[in-house]
Amino acid sequence: MTRLALGVLVSGSGTNLQAILDAVSDGRVDADVRVVVSNKPGVRALARAEAAGVPALCLSHRDYADREAFDAALVEVLRSHGVDWVVLAGFMRVLTRTFLDAFPLRVLNIHPALLPAFPGVHAQAQALAHGVKVTGCTVHLVDHGVDTGPIIAQRAVAVLPSDDVASLTERILAQEHDLLVRVLAAVAAGELVITSDESTGRLRAEAGVR
Ligand code: GRF
């Protein structure tokens, strides 16, 4: 089986990227990170990639006329590095069909809530505002909606009475790192199975990761 050729898209601190880089380097995930692309200059994630010896570059969405033009440029960069699977690791841009059609069912996202609860931004603040007692994180395939694609794996995290956004974010992040790496290991091992639900027509994803 060919090694997974990953492209990782980032916008910020890159702790999920770091978890991937560490797991690839110690053999837990049978993959190469071919390139890391940020839509924001100077972010910590780019420094993490460089420290790991992985090609890293910034493509600022501000330099493109519209989302499609930006997405086309992203596709070109990823293809030029031989990427076949893409991980959105804290990438804060919504992708268009231009991008998703180039990597059909091969784009993964990590989201800091138990989807379909609390999609979009500020998921941890939404969880606190709703007073939920349990939240968590989700790894899913990206489709044309915002955080709506087939769910691969989820991890629950208890919300404590003392929690604020920072403390809850930190505990969820620790679970994100572990869950994302386990899903990538399963994908690299060819264990991801995608089926279509007979009654709803919705796609379902299973990777044997809980
Ligand atoms: C994570 O909480 C991720 O779920 C969300 O953005 C955050 C990125 O954190 N999409 P990091 O850049 O990986 O540290």
List key phrases describing it.
single chain; alpha/beta; seven-stranded mixed β-sheet; two-stranded antiparallel ribbon; 9 strands; binds 5-O-phosphono-beta-D-ribofuranosylamine
**What general outline do the C-alpha atoms trace?**
globular
- Which whole number gives the mean pLDDT? 97
Helical coverage, percent range = 25-40%
Estimated radius of gyration = 17 Å
Structural class computed from helices and strand pairing? alpha/beta
Beta strands, count: 9
Q: What is the straight-line distance between the termini?
A: 24 Å
The description of the largest β-sheet is: 7 strands, mixed
Bound molecules: 5-O-phosphono-beta-D-ribofuranosylamine
Tell me what you see in this structure.
By secondary structure, the chain is of the alpha/beta class. Helix content is 33%, strand content 24%. Helix 1 (15-25) runs parallel beside helix 6. The protein is globular and about 45 Å long. The two termini are 24 Å apart. The structure holds 5-O-phosphono-beta-D-ribofuranosylamine. 5-O-phosphono-beta-D-ribofuranosylamine (GRF) is lined by residues 12-17, 45, 89-90, 110-112, 173, 176. 5-O-phosphono-beta-D-ribofuranosylamine (GRF) binds at residues 12-17, 45, 89-90, 110-112, 173, 176.
